[in-house]
Predict the 3D structure of the following.
Amino acid sequence: MSQTQTEPEIRKGLVGVVADTTAISKVNPETNSLLYRGYPVQELAARCTFEEVAYLLWHGELPTPAELAALEDAGRGQRALAREVRAAVDLVPTTAHPMDVLRTAVSVIGATDPAVDDASREGNLAKSVRLLAQIPAVVAYDQRRRRGQDLVEARPDLGYVENFLHMTFGEVPDPVVVDAFRVSLILYAEHSFNASTFTARVITSTLSDLYSAVVGAIGALKGPLHGGANEAVMHVFDEIGTAEDAEAWLDTALAEKRRIMGFGHRVYKHGDSRVPTMKAALDTLVAHYDRPDLAALYDNLERAMVARKNIQPNLDYPSGPAYHLMGFDTATFTPLFVAARNTGWTAHIMEQLAANSLIRPLSAYSGPAERHLPQR
Ligand code: ACO
């Protein structure tokens, strides 16, 4: 007698699956729009500081001047690299990828926090501010030690973005550069249930601590299909060489069935809402550093990719060359993404905890039928 069984519907990659609600951001692929707590990201990028956006993501509203000053003060006092964290960074060889260094450092930041398991909202807000302040110190120090340069002490008199650049380069660059960096951090800050944010929510759903969730999220972001793409874009540019070679390079790469880094998106199919704002920031950098050659390569590759595949660039496409022009090492690009996205991750961690349910999907077994060990 044959039995009819209903096959479970499997959505590989969870494509199209709505896993939960969130009040933090709304991605609308139909209108190519992205809202943080209701505000279009373009408006935030035009008018807000990065700390204002962090506050908005965590609290749901923009800060009053007093609330912003309190956040800035709290962060300013924690900008110096803690002794244990510096020691941990020094232990990791410079042959390791900066994302591995950052993942290790965040783990140590967590392990040395006596309040690591305080899961109250206040406790998690304090940890979020700590990470906001500490991650730039790790990223900046790691890039410097790779270049054989000494650590640069934090400057409490500087704003968040200026201090980040000061700790990396030993000076505050031109306001054009500072502003482009601020814009990139705001655009990278949050993007609903992307792979790294979902990772953070899965870890949080077990009632693990905030640092563990961020460490897991860093691991997810490292991959080239996600945050690692901004670094990969720069490798592609290096491989192509000049603007004139872009089309031929693309034809060969597509014939070899290669993924073209910085193009395509799981949610946006007609263009990434953040690209025009980041492209405008890149254009100011191209003008500032007088690099029309880089702009031409960018345009030629994009034009050819859209013509061949009708696949649009994502945020990593303009941000990769922008970070290159700012002077960051290519391997530092994804840690910069962490410095920004950490704000979104921590907002999601707090949201997950506020209405938690263990995240535990089912699987459809596809292995051998039940069998038994042979008699011995
Ligand atoms: N280069 C070449 N072909 C691509 C690309 C690309 N960048 N992106 C999608 N495609 C093609 C696929 O080969 C596939 O073609 P097929 O149907 O003929 O096999 C089709 O488009 C659909 O691709 P999927 O992988 O199924 O689409 P998915 O939604 O899963 O992919 C992803 C999204 C992973 C981002 C993909 O576009 C990609 O690999 N891009 C390159 C990596 C990248 O830039 N990542 C950054 C993401 S955004 C961010 O993190 C800020």
The first strand starts at residue 25 and ends at 28. The pocket of acetyl coenzyme *A is lined by residues 13, 225-227, 229, 259-266, 309, 311, 314-316 (CB under 6 Å). The chain has 16 helices and three strands.
